[in-house]
Amino acid sequence: MDPNAILAALSLAVAFIAVYTDIRSRIIPNALTYTATVIGVVSHICLGIYLSNPFVCARGILGFGLAFIIGYALWLSGGWAGGDVKLFAAFGAILPAYSPPFSAAPYSTEYPFFPITVLINTALVSLPAILVYAGICLARGEGAFHMTVRITELKEGMIPAEWIYEENGKIHRKLSIISLRSRKAFTSPNRASGLTRAQITQLKRLVREGKIEDRIRIKRGIPFGPFLAAGLAVSVLYGDVYWKILTML
After folding, report:
1. Do 105 and 62 fall into the same domain?
2. How many alpha carbons fall within 13 Å on the CB side of residue 87?
3. Which residues contact 74 (CB under 8 A, 6 or more apart)?
4. For the purposes of burial, counting CB atoms within 10 Å of the CB of 96, is it exposed (0-12), middle (13-18) or buried (19 or more)?
5. Other beta carbons less than 10 A from residue 217's beta carbon
6. Could you say which DSSP state residue 29 is in?
7. Collapsing DSSP states into helix, strand and coil, what is residue 161?
8. Across all residues in the chain, what is the average pLDDT?
9. Which tens digit of pLDDT belongs to each residue from 169-194?
10. How far is CA 42 from CA 2, 94, 112, 138, 235, in A?
11. Which domain holds residue 88?
């Protein structure tokens, strides 16, 4: 049986499990992503040895590295959570290069750039779904991506949509990005894992002391694991949608 077909089936199985856990508990288990990464890297090492091809040996590591760098950059921007980064990196380790049945981009069939195909397809798949979601929220008179809650009702993991920080003994609130030099930040919208218990305790203390109002803007949480899985499924079962559009033009 074609080793690439086996690895493609494995990646889809990992994606299916990740979707289930992300929707059910908002967590993509480390046991799943770490195991998938190791299997992907070891599989390519074994395949490279069998084919006497050093490049194939290294392909799993290269695919993992590329996917991790991209995912880590998105994590730093606040767009992805840690589980999303690990899942994307696992996809890169399992399928660093792949020849899909209908639309194969030359940069991802032999070289370890298939994670780029997965990322582009994920963006194309997720955008319509996010727009529909935003439309439903607006029709209900709600904020599409943010909402205001009481600080006393905050829960661990909620992601703030505003900066609350102390500077020169005064508490300030801003929606824009700030520099943290000489400032003590109580919230950070860039932290994809959300508020910690310690941060929530500090915020509640500030409310009790009358230093801030009992309200805070938070981001509406949308599990991104299903979008990544959908992008992978499109990439494996069809191919590079963006490359297909380019060739048609």
Report:
1. yes
2. 32
3. 80, 84, 85
4. buried
5. 16
6. -
7. coil
8. 86
9. 788 888 766 566 657 788 877 766 67
10. 17, 9, 15, 48, 22
11. 3-137+223-248
